[in-house]
Specification:
- The protein is an alpha+beta fold.
- 48% of the residues lie in helices and 23% in strands.
- Strands 1, 2, 3, 4, 21, 22, 29 and 30 form an 8-stranded antiparallel beta sheet that branches. Strands 14-13-18-19-17-20 form a 6-stranded antiparallel beta sheet.
- It starts with 7 loop residues before the first helix and ends in a 9-residue tail after the last strand.
Length: 835
């Protein structure tokens, strides 16, 4: 008597065969729910590839890069170093700003990381010099960060009006969109009320800059007035006396003698004027405003883009009525996401169709082919549901893993079905046929061990990919995970759904002969086996020869971390000599824009120079970026031609360095090395001059490497700097407090914010500084009047040495080590590496 099979697999297969209706119904439910869940899945181009990191920015207005490094960056670094889980610190100190990026272990919780960093920043803020603002953490964004780039231009409205609309109408509306982390605005003129002092008039009326500051603060101050309680109600006071308009502030009394008074208007021009610019922008060569919408960590890029565009669509009529032109799609990453995921979905569909065709040809029976093919959608949808449960997005990596698994997920079902059909055929020819259910169960169990072992072997092959550390693991781990989940799901389908379908549709309906393709293939394979059996040494030698040839060709293949992505968009970096003004950068950019717009493949060109407040890109006025968007529908060959044409057009501009990259490639490179270049060489040491010397030598060597282009030192010296050294003896002679003198210099040439005015919900700063003619005249710095405690006026040159000297644009660190960096772009594919 035949012994009944036992064990977990036998029990599971037996349950599926016995309750085949339930199993098939559950499979249909899985299929329907999976299709429904696909509509709500989160789509992106790449998974979150950046490690958990926290950005810290600290404004230190007026301080040089060296002062920012010593007085601001180092104290904050020392405080943050004690935070648990910190893997690396990267910092840059530029004029007036400290930027620190804290990297944590990949397994850490980013929200907890931000909490502990905030606690340490509260302590570090108390150790910073007076006048340095409180350190702030940049918003938590996704790896790709940018979800949409748009802009404003206008022929009828001023740049101040454009910036006001961007700051007080557009930005609040977009920040209210779910999934938006920040809206960064470049360009335009920020409205402010400026009190521009005439130094000679101060001497005439025997006043000092401190007198003007005190009067301006009094004029713009806001005070509460309390309330009155009557027997049955409370009446709240609202006082109105603050000067809100420039004309009101100008009538503020500085000095009163008898019937005459000296007002701010007598010693200064009080006007509504743009605040000192730290950045400018232009769209297709027209001055304007550019805004970057950044998405929150873990947000759905496609859905956030649609929501942002819906808000822009609502604002567009009002903007047009105000004479403002909206450019809503200077860069739209969702276009590439839709294209990339659509291409992978098409590949999945094509692969599935090919598998179905092959299965039908080899099985030559519609029922058996359909049962085998059922494993494809069930396995892929099951894997997709698990990925969604784990918080993963459907991106090129996860969809690629599913595409690779198509040929594998059907394998288990094919093996099962082929054996079931063969055993049912044999059973039908037997003198005493056994029950069909028993035949199906035994046929499945006969191949279970080999199928399980093969499945485990396939999973073990991709386990090292899931175990990759760093950004490589975060990028390619989801691909391996999707592949593994699909293969495991196919094993479960083969153990349950395949036997149930076989029992429901095959008994009594199987073909009694092998398919024609199988008979033909078997005959050819038998001939090949006989040939190999006669000459086994030849077969082994041929295998060894082809293996050796394959290994010999490996060094000839190019190497890169990720393939070149045809996004239909390029980012061009332009760096002039440090010290170049914003206006000069924009003038050069205008010429670059006109040259690029002459190319037939380019749709739009947008440029910003300098930086924006609290933005991730903290660059000087000598630096610009161009968002170059190509016309839609270009093929891969046309995109490559456009890139070559762009490089050719840029080669005609001398005195500036360019680098051309795609958005996603740049974000990955920036995450890897901290710089937007495929090659970055870091040199560490404490002597900045020696680091600069070595960096220049390395740059010369890199420039000779085939394929290297746009080689540049990231922090070259040469920034023009005016050094004002106070003489202690003269300070003592005239009775000056050195800090008071430094405060006067800062007020005169950087400007001090003394208060705010408001119109509706729009708040503007009130600033005090010297008049424009004095600020733009370097030779006039020494003529700045100072009033001593003895009411004697002296010029700045009488108590200070003033000289021009080269300065450094920035000072960078990784950990506690100073570094200089040389970057290089890759014109072709000859090399691509990180050093």
């Amino acid at each position: 008597m035949e012994r009944a099979p036992s064990g977990p697999q036998a029990a599971l297969i037996g349950f599926a065969v016995r309750f085949r209706g339930v199993v098939i119904a559950l499979a249909c439910l899985l299929l329907g729910y999976g299709v429904y869940a696909l509509g709500d899945a989160r789509y992106d181009v790449f998974p979150e590839f950046a490690p958990p990191q926290v950005g810290i920015q600290t404004e230190a207005a007026g301080l040089t890069p060296e002062q920012v490094e010593i007085l601001v960056t180092r104290p904050i670094e020392n405080a943050i170093n004690g935070v648990p889980g910190v893997r690396k610190l990267r910092s840059t100190s530029i004029q007036g700003l400290s930027i620190i990026t804290v990297f944590f272990d990949g397994s850490s919780d980013i929200y907890r990381d931000r909490q502990v960093v905030a606690e340490q920043l509260a302590v570090a803020a108390q150790q910073l010099p007076q006048g340095v603002k409180t350190p702030t953490m940049t918003p938590l964004t996704s790896s790709a960060r940018t979800v949409l780039v748009g802009g404003f231009t206008s022929k009828a409205r001023s740049l101040m009006r454009l910036r006001t609309v961007a700051d007080w109408t557009l930005r609040p509306a977009l920040l209210a969109v779910p999934g938006v982390a920040d809206v960064v605005v470049y360009g335009g003129d920020t409205r402010s009320i400026q009190i521009k002092i005439h130094p000679d008039q101060l001497i005439r009326y025997n006043l000092s800059i401190d007198d003007v500051l005190a009067a301006a603060r009094r004029a713009t101050g806001i005070r509460g007035a309390g309330f009155v309680d009557t027997d049955n109600q409370r009446i709240v006071f609202q006082t109105e006396g603050q000067s809100l308009q420039a004309d009101d502030i100008a009538r503020t009394v500085l000095l009163s003698a008898g019937a005459s008074s000296v007002t701010l208007a007598n010693v200064a021009d009080v006007t509504e004027a743009p605040a000192p610019a730290i950045g400018k922008a232009a769209i297709d060569g027209k001055p304007g405003v550019i805004f970057y919408v950044e998405e929150q960590y873990g947000a759905n890029t496609v859905e956030v883009t649609k929501s942002v565009e819906a808000v822009l669509h609502e604002l567009k009529p009002g903007l047009e009525n105000g004479g403002i032109t909206l450019h809503p799609d200077l860069f739209r990453p969702a276009n590439f996401i839709n294209t990339a995921t659509g291409n992978v979905r098409d590949s999945l569909l094509i692969g599935g169709v090919l598998v179905i065709v092959v299965l039908f040809l080899f099985l030559f029976d519609l029922r058996t082919a359909a049962i085998s093919c059922a494993a494809i959608p069930l396995s892929l949808l099951a894997a997709t549901l698990v990925l969604d449960y784990l918080g993963a997005t459907l991106n090129t990596m996860t969809l690629g893993g599913l595409a690779i698994s198509i040929g594998v997920v059907v394998d288990d079902a094919v093996i099962d079905i082929e054996n079931i059909v063969r055993r049912l055929r044999e059973n039908a020819r037997a003198a005493q046929p056994r029950p069909a259910a028993q035949v199906v169960i035994n046929a499945c169990l006969e191949v279970r061990s080999s199928v399980v072992y093969a499945t485990l072997a396939l999973i073990l092959v991709v386990v090292p990919v899931m175990a990759l550390p760093g950004i490589a693991g975060r990028l390619f781990g989801p691909l391996a995970l999707a592949y593994t989940l699909a293969v495991l799901a196919s094993l479960v389908v083969a153990l349950t759904v395949t036997p149930a379908l076989a029992m429901a549709f095959l008994p009594g309906r199987i073909p009694m002969r092998d398919p024609p393709v199988m008979r033909w293939a078997r005959a050819g394979y038998e001939r090949l086996l006989r040939l190999i059996a006669r000459e086994p040494q030849t077969a082994v030698a041929a295998a060894v020869l082809f293996t050796a040839l394959g290994c010999a060709l490996l060094p000839l293949l190019g190497g890169s971390f990720i393939p070149d992505l045809k996004e239909g968009h390029f980012i061009i970096h332009m760096a002039a000599v440090p010290g170049t003004s914003l206006d000069q950068s924009m003038r050069i950019g205008d010429r670059v824009t006109r040259a690029l717009l002459r190319l037939p493949e380019i749709r739009s060109v947008a440029q910003w120079a300098g930086r924006a407040e609290q933005a991730a890109d903290t660059t000087g006025p000598h630096y610009s970026e161009f968002e170059v968007d190509l016309k839609p529908g270009l093929s891969g060959e046309q995109t490559e031609k456009a890139q070559r044409d762009i490089r050719k057009a840029l080669s005609g501009f001398v005195g500036v360095n360019f680098a051309v990259n795609t958005f996603l490639t740049e974000r990955i490179e920036e995450t890897l090395s901290g710089y937007t270049a495929p090659v970055a060489v870091n040199i560490f040491g404490n002597n900045l001059d020696l680091l600069e010397q070595k960096a220049q030598q390395i740059a010369k060597v890199l420039a000779t490497v085939p394929g290297a282009t746009d080689v540049q030192v990231q922090s070259p010296p040469g920034l023009p700097q005016l050094v004002i050294s106070l003489r202690k003896s003269d300070l003592e002679r005239w009775g000056f407090d050195p800090v008071a003198v430094l405060d006067v210099i800062r007020t005169a040439y950087r400007g001090d914010v003394v208060g705010q005015t408001y119109q509706g919900n729009q708040v503007s700063d009130v600033m005090v500084q010297v008049d424009d003619a004095t600020r733009r005249n370097v030779a006039a710095v020494g003529d700045l009047p100072l009033r001593s405690p003895g009411d004697i006026y002296v010029r700045l040159r009488q108590i200070a040495n003033i000289r021009l000297a080269p300065g450094r644009y920035s000072v960078s660190h990784i950990g506690a080590r100073r570094l200089e960096t040389v970057t290089a772009d890759v014109a072709g594919t000859d090399f691509a590496a990180f050093v």
